[in-house]
Design brief:
18 helices; alpha/beta; 423 residues; eight-stranded parallel barrel; TIM Barrel; two-stranded antiparallel sheet; 11 strands
Length: 423
């Protein structure tokens, strides 16, 4: 694999990151043959003390997991040392030298567990608890905040640094909490991408990670992103395709109607947003593999691939085909066994690379979780993910009946199955 300087990574064009099918790429996943992946998602609430870290690793080892996916960036904050993001507020009561990720890696190695750093990429704040730390991305760069289309005409005349700007987006998000999880940073501005590249560069250089796991690597809905930064970037992307007369007419219209360019070119606007997100994924993968060529790149994704591409602009089938992502983890979070089975069969019928189905343990009983693990195995998937540790644990210092049942029913025997070319 050719070695790229960090400067070269930052300047890589999209075409070099997501090549046509069959084209070579310096950033594609490294082929490997490994046993079954039994992944455990560990939320940041279990990364706040040494005792918690010890319990997580002890439970994962005792109950047959092979990898822990630990949330080290939850809302634009850091559950690790250094890097551009501020230290997480949940760590405020710990000594300044406490590094939960370093401690977890140190405990995971002798336990034979892989450690994957789980990053919430675009989701950077809750809508009711807006970040105030000076180092936080939305404090430093409120202009990168994603703006929904229904709010555009209200907030675009405001300065992004006006408290009313962020407050308006937060209020809208609160009113639509069933559809949007919080405040999102846009993947469109170049500066926003570079900041995320810095996060990944720091993590992969400073820690012996087995994997990097991207979550919330998507747009909240087709209504996003209508921030001034995104609209200006779209104009810049298409300006060379317009005649001087067309450009002048659209510029004049945009002074009265800020969404003029995206309304005039709706298909290109859709493609533009999808391509910017795919470009970000490629650049993050290139950065991670520059530091650690064997790192496993994975992403938590919307389960229906057509819906993911059409509504979230999350083209994960293309990410798998190109090799920038080695594995995807479709979030099959349903209480219905029939719905889960249908989703699983749909994924199996359209093989696009390595898929580790994500099982929503928080919605089902442990016996049902074990059945869902077995169903994934029966269809040839090379691994599964369980969400999440906090919904399965017995609490601080207590045994977990849920994990015990899962271990007896699904994880008792060591797997020697090769991941190879399996789904």
């Amino acid at each position: 694999m050719p070695q790229l300087s960090r400067r070269a990574i930052l300047r890589l064009p999209l075409a070099g990151l997501v090549p046509p099918l069959g084209s070579p790429s310096p950033v594609v996943a490294v082929p490997r043959s490994r046993g079954e992946v039994r992944g455990l998602w560990v939320t940041r609430s279990w990364m706040t003390s040494s005792a918690q870290v010890a319990q997580v690793i002890g439970d994962a080892e005792r109950h047959g997991f092979t990898a822990v996916f630990v949330q080290v960036r939850g809302r634009g904050d850091a559950f690790y040392a250094g890097g551009p993001d501020p230290r997480a507020a949940l760590l405020a009561r710990q000594p300044s030298g406490f590094d939960p990720l370093a401690e977890l890696i140190a405990r995971a190695r002798p336990a034979g567990l892989e450690v994957h750093a789980w990053l919430n990429v675009n989701l950077v704040a809750g809508s009711t608890a807006i970040a105030t730390a000076p180092q936080h991305v939305l404090v430093q760069h409120p202009e990168w905040l994603m703006v929904p289309r229904p709010l555009a005409e209200q907030v675009l005349p405001l300065s992004p640094r006006s408290p009313a700007y962020v407050a308006a987006v937060a209020s809208w998000s609160q009113r639509h909490a069933a559809q949007i999880e919080g405040l999102f940073s846009s993947p469109i501005p170049e500066g926003a991408q570079l900041r995320l590249i810095d996060v990944v560069a720091h993590l992969t250089a400073a820690y012996r990670l087995d994997g990097l796991h991207l979550d919330y690597i998507r747009y909240p809905s087709p209504d996003f992103d209508c921030s001034r930064a995104a609209l200006d970037a779209f104009r810049d992307a298409i300006v060379n395709d317009l005649t001087p007369g067309e450009l002048a007419a659209l510029d004049q219209r945009a002074r009265r109607a800020p969404l003029a360019f995206i309304d005039y070119f709706p298909a290109r606007w859709t493609s533009f947003r999808k391509e910017r997100l795919t470009r970000l994924v490629g650049r993050l993968a290139a950065t991670a593999r520059q530091a650690r060529p064997e790192i496993r790149m994975s992403a938590a994704v919307w389960p229906d691939h057509d819906d993911a591409v059409r509504r979230k602009f999350q083209d994960w089938p293309a990410w798998l085909r190109s090799g920038v992502i080695e594995a995807v983890c479709p979030m099959l979070y349903t209480s219905s066994a029939a719905t889960y089975g249908g989703q699983l069969r749909q994924l199996a019928a359209h093989p696009r690379g390595t898929v580790w189905p994500g099982i929503g343990a928080f919605k089902i009983e442990p016996d049902e979780a074990a059945r869902r693990v077995d169903a994934a195995r029966a269809l040839g998937f090379s691994g599964v993910m369980l969400y999440s540790y906090d919904s399965m644990t017995g609490g601080a210092g207590r045994p977990s009946p849920y994990l015990g049942t899962l271990q007896r029913r699904a994880f008792r025997a060591s797997s020697t199955a090769s991941a190879g070319a399996a789904r």
